[in-house]
Design goal:
This protein is α+β, with helices and mostly antiparallel strands. 38% of the residues lie in helices and 19% in strands. Strands 14-13-19-10-11-18-15-16 form an eight-stranded antiparallel β-sheet. A seven-stranded mixed β-sheet has the order 2-3-1-4-5-6-7, sandwiched between helices. A hairpin with a 2-residue loop joins β15 and β16. GO terms for molecular function: GTP binding; GTPase activity; ribosome binding.
Length: 1103
């Protein structure tokens, strides 16, 4: 009976397309919301219940079908991997609402999909498992909602587990639920406190500036500012109506309001009183017939337990635990619900329970009414959120052009007037089979389905007739059914649909709009374009601005798309025909004054790399095209072509990698591919000379010096030449081949805290570099106060971390950051007599003294050499991290004839205006003699770049070298009986347990550990196998950690010889990693290969 089952799933819901189109025109009654939670907390099951309320799927299949998980691998794995949207209709009171619901993944590998969903919404339903409570990903999604300024409401799901699994009493369950609420509110409180303290710090700085100007007595205020701010509306509390208690799998859920309404009618108590007292320390005094306070102190049952939980517990007791038919009948009669005979006779008691609860306390009604009452409509968008969306990078909102600032009112009004500018944000592109598009639905489908069905064997004839009747009843979906039943021979073509939201104006099919790139500057285009210019006008080219036509508009209905002619402001929609213009996300507008929106906040960092190649080399063009499509379809995946020519795919984790490879094989490239072993990223660094040897014996001073000298002598003997000199202090002096330039460089390890600060401040350093570039080019750039504050904070923090004699005045002497000008390494200017402009010059633009200094010739060559050295270190060509290169000598000699000496000296006083100078030009025009004398070697600048790079590499090798491994933070929830196995797997894979704690009221332990990324592949599967599925890890990239062992270590002390032997061939973790990387990159690997091994013969048995 498979076809009939199929049809019952695909039968069209109660809400017609016309109804949804009419509801789209009233933004006050639109709610754009997403469902956020940790993995396996029940988001998709809850979404099923909400979808079933519209009749799109059968309520019996809710929770089993997982309608919004449309991918095959989502159904197999049982987790959501992408954001899916569906529009629902809900009548609440006398109002009708349109709910644009987006279901998002909970797995950490797909947290980028959560970011794409959150940007398009005004509110979020945060789902928390009643047993597991607040988990790592719950905290992440709450932070994402906070960063995007969207309002959350809470659903505590899986309450049935408290009864059936944990077997808690109703009183214990109440205490447990209170703790979960406290945990969620603690996360919200932390986010709120940090925001208030930031604002407070900003105000204090302003007041200090004003205080300096105005003389008078200083008044000190030591309050944090938290006392004045009202935060009561932020927290989740059942009496505020923003919490629903539910069991989505059993189809029930309720809010306090529901029970307050029931009991106000039955008991004659005012509804307002019940709303305030149903949750909290209140009890019902039967003697006084009043609600009293102090239930806990007097040992009484709280009102919530007495009136709410006891009823639910007794229902579970009768139906599931004891299966008491008589009691069930009484309950059914008292509740006034109708139960079908087949449900009451069913062998699974959960079927009967679901039938009763879905009528008594329907979860969809509880959640949707809370959404309509508590979540904002598009008209209620906060002005702060609008300014945040429109202020990109270093620009502040009030520095934007006046026309751009006027667009803020269009945002806030969410107007659908004819003259309102169209503003649309595309958060991601998703791939759809071209045949699934509504405009490609084939005509005469019903006839084809009839032909197909009647071509089956004769005994199916009766079924065929029934099936055709049912198809006729839902003609809209006959084509979808046809696609399911028949597999077309012709190759399916993938097309892209943009997942977007209209913030202002009305989007119409075929409308022309501007596509604004992330670097688009509205001020530049407004000065170039004529006033009143539209996207359909033929005007001159503007950087980062293109035009496109929105060919098709779609209503997103989960697994289906419905075609629309126009979409008013405030709605979520799909847009076809943008694949040539939008890569992953973009801003579209009819006004060139509109700025691009701020980039999405991605929590997961892509860290897992694999090299991909086709099985048959002739199919390489198909692979290239497939990878391009995959890059567009996945918000987090990155596709690179390395210097070696390898095609590399970078993903967020193992599950994400598997999904991307499956997509490449089956959807985008449609060829057989082979993926390499994961390419593990490492970093190279230097450390301070060790104080103990490998057997933890303290090194004596003479011995220690002897070892360092021995190592350095060996190194210098191997590398000494007439152009290179390495002294005992670690200073490397290198002369260029044409003998015109000499540089002296020393490598110094940065303190760990400073390295972490530089790594976390990459965006600030990038902004700083951008500002310095503009200043060197003589351009003015308006920087937001926030960016300036961030830069000055970075400088202050660096000054506090770089203390001591060797770091004296180091922050002011910073020459550049690297690699790529914003990495965690520093180039320091220690050249005597060279005062170059400070990298912090944007903080002191008012000072004339700071502007007087200028750059020396070839300054940029030194920076370029440092950037190259920092990008690939000498150990295994991996980027450097936490290294400071101090340039202590930089001489450029002139090879000019004596008569031209004066002119050369005069010439050498010229200064470069910009860093990005024309190198060849400078070598030809400024130093003609130098250029002439170095024809056989090439330009001076090129030699200087190479010399600085080599000097940095040799200086690096003169210090104790170490590898740094990428580390995952691993959170594992496991029961007590499998803890030992979890520890066993962690120990085997070089993991380190940080702490473990028991969740109160459960037998679950939360273990927090760190694990090298290199050892993480297959970790989740192994843990699940060893613990029989009772433990599952969440891996999130955390930090870089120095591997303590020296990859080049050889025994030098007597104790080390005794312990490790002369060969010292025991396992060296760092050497193993380093050789693996060198082997993969085709570099020389020093290892002994046994070619002709002989079998060992023992004296006892001469075999």
């Amino acid at each position: 009976c498979q076809w009939v089952g199929l049809l019952s799933v695909f039968t069209m819901g109660h809400t017609s397309l016309e109804k949804i189109i009419s509801l789209q025109r009233n933004p006050a009654n639109i709610r754009n919301l997403c469902i956020l939670a940790h993995v396996d907390h029940g988001k998709t099951t809850l979404a099923d219940c909400l979808v079933a309320s519209n009749g799109i799927i059968s309520s019996r299949l809710a929770g089993k079908l997982r309608y919004l998980d449309s991918r095959e691998d989502e159904q197999i794995r049982g987790i959501t991997m992408k954001s899916s949207a569906i529009s629902l209709h809900y009548s609440h009171g006398d109002q009708e609402y349109l709910l644009n619901l987006i279901d998002s993944p909970g797995h950490v590998d797909f947290s980028s999909e959560v970011s794409t969903a959150v940007r398009l919404c005004d509110g979020a339903v945060v789902v928390v498992d009643a047993v597991e409570g607040v988990c790592p990903q719950t905290q992440v999604v709450l932070r994402q909602a906070w960063l995007e300024n969207i309002r959350p409401v809470l659903v505590i799901n899986k309450i049935d587990r408290l009864v059936v699994e944990l077997k808690l009493t109703s009183q214990e369950a109440y205490t447990h639920l209170k703790k979960i609420l406290e945990q969620v509110n603690a996360v919200t409180g932390t986010l709120f406190t940090s925001k208030v303290l930031e604002e407070r710090a900003g105000k204090e700085e302003e007041e200090e500036k004003e205080g300096e100007k105005s003389s008078g007595d200083q008044v000190y205020d030591w309050s944090a500012g938290l006392e004045e701010v009202d935060d009561s509306h932020l927290y989740f509390s059942p009496d505020q109506g923003n919490v629903v208690f539910a069991s989505a799998i059993d189809g029930w859920g309720f809010s306090i309001q529901h029970f307050a309404h029931i009991y106000s009618e039955r008991m004659g108590i005012k509804k307002e009183v019940l709303l305030k007292t149903l949750w909290g320390d209140f009890y019902l005094s039967m003697k006084a017939k009043r609600i009293m306070k102090g239930a806990q102190a007097k040992g009484k049952k709280p009102l919530f337990v007495q009136l709410v939980l006891d009823n639910i517990w007794s229902l579970y007791d009768a139906v599931v635990i004891r299966r008491d038919k008589e009691k069930v009948e009484k309950v059914v009669t008292s509740l006034g619900v109708k139960v079908m005979a087949r449900d009451s006779r069913h062998s699974d008691p959960k079927v009967l329970l679901s039938a009763i609860c879905s009528q008594w306390l329907p979860v969809s009604q509880a959640v949707l009414s809370m959404v309509c009452e508590k979540l904002p409509s598009p008209l209620e968008m906060a002005a702060e959120r609008v300014e945040k969306l429109m202020s990109v990078g270093a620009r502040r909102f009030d520095s934007l052009p006046e026309q751009t600032q006027h667009l803020k009112t269009a945002f806030l009004q969410c107007s659908s007037e004819e003259n309102a500018p169209v503003i649309v944000f595309v958060s991601k592109m998703f791939a759809v089979d071209a045949k699934a598009l509504p405009q490609h639905r084939q005509r005469g489908v019903l006839l084809k389905v009839k032909q197909y069905l009647f071509s089956q064997s004769s005994h199916q004839e009766a079924l065929c007739v029934l099936t055709i009747r049912r198809i006729s009843a839902c003609g809209l979906l006959a084509s979808a059914l046809y696609l399911v039943l028949t597999s077309s021979e012709e190759e399916a073509k993938e097309t892209f649909v943009a997942f977007a939201r209209v913030y202002s104006g009305v989007v119409r099919k075929g409308q022309r709009v501007f596509v604004l790139g992330p670097k688009y500057d509205p001020a530049q285009s407004l000065s170039t374009l004529p006033e009143g210019c539209s996207a359909s006008d033929d005007v001159s080219e503007i950087p980062h601005l293109s035009r496109c036509s929105m060919e098709n508009l779609y209503l997103l209905m989960g697994r289906e798309l419905e075609e629309l002619q126009e979409v008013p402001a405030g709605n979520v929609l799909g847009i076809g025909g943008l694949e040539e213009f939008v890569l992953k996300s973009a801003t579209l507008s009819t006004s060139p004054a509109c700025p691009p929106f701020t980039p999405l906040n991605f929590e997961a960092t892509p860290i897992v790399r694999v090299a991909i190649e086709p099985k048959h080399p002739s199919e390489m063009p198909k692979l290239v095209r497939g990878m391009r499509l995959l890059n567009q379809a996945d918000p987090c995946a990155e596709v690179l072509i390395q210097e070696t020519g390898e095609h590399v795919l970078v993903t967020a984790g193992e599950v994400h990698l598997q999904r991307c490879l499956d997509d490449l094989r089956e959807r985008f490239a449609k060829i057989e591919i082979s993926a390499s072993e994961p390419i593990i990223p490492f970093r190279e660094t230097v450390v301070r000379p060790p104080k103990v040897d490998m057997v933890n014996e303290e090194l004596g001073k003479q011995q220690k010096v002897a070892i360092i000298h021995q190592v350095k002598e060996e190194a210098s003997q191997g590398r000494s030449s007439d152009t290179l000199h390495l002294d005992s202090s670690g200073l490397v002096t290198l002369t260029t081949p044409n003998r015109l330039a000499t540089v002296g460089v020393r490598a110094i390890p940065l303190p760990q805290e400073a390295t972490r600060l530089l790594e976390s401040s990459s965006e600030v350093i990038r902004t700083l570099e951008q500002v310095n570039m503009s200043l060197r080019e003589g351009k003015s750039l308006d920087i937001s106060v926030r960016s300036l504050e961030a830069i000055s904070d970075l400088k202050a923090q660096l000054e506090s971390l770089l203390q001591g004699r060797k770091w004296r005045n180091a922050v002011e002497r910073i020459w550049a950051f690297g690699p790529r000008r914003y990495g965690p390494n520093i180039l320091l200017n220690s050249v005597e007599g060279y005062q170059r402009p400070s990298v912090w010059q944007c903080l002191s633009r008012g000072d004339k003294a700071s502007e007087a200094t200028a750059l020396r010739d070839f300054d940029n060559s030194v920076v370029s050499g440092f950037q190259l050295a920092a990008l690939s270190g000498p150990m295994c060509e991996e980027p450097l991290m936490g290294v400071c290169f101090s340039v202590e000598r930089w001489d450029v000699q002139s090879a000019a004839p004596p008569q031209r000496q004066d002119s050369v000296e005069e010439d050498s006083t010229r200064h470069e205006a910009t860093v990005e100078s024309n190198v060849e030009g400078s070598s030809e025009t400024r130093r003609p003699e130098v250029a002439a004398s170095s024809d056989c070697y090439g330009p001076v600048s090129g030699q200087l770049i190479a010399a600085v790079k080599e000097a940095c590499r040799h200086a690096f090798q003169a210090q104790p070298q170490r590898l740094m491994a990428a580390m995952y933070t691993c959170e594992i929830m496991a029961t007590a009986d499998v803890l030992g196995r979890v520890y066993g797997v962690l120990g085997k894979r070089e993991g380190r347990v940080l702490h473990e704690e028991m969740k109160e009221g459960t037998d679950m332990f939360t273990i927090k550990a760190v694990l090298p990324v290199a050892e993480s592949f297959g970790f989740a599967d192994e843990i699940r196998k060893r613990t029989s599925g009772l433990a599952s890890p969440q891996l999130v990239f955390s930090h870089w950690e120095v591997i303590s062992s020296d990859p080049y270590w050889v025994p030098t002390t007597e104790e080390e010889y005794l312990h490790f032997g002369e060969k010292a061939d025991s396992e060296n973790q760092a050497l193993k990693y380093m050789n693996a990387v060198r082997r993969r990159k085709g570099l020389y690997v020093e290892e002994k290969i046994v070619e002709h091994a002989e079998k060992q013969r023992t004296l006892g048995k001469n075999k």
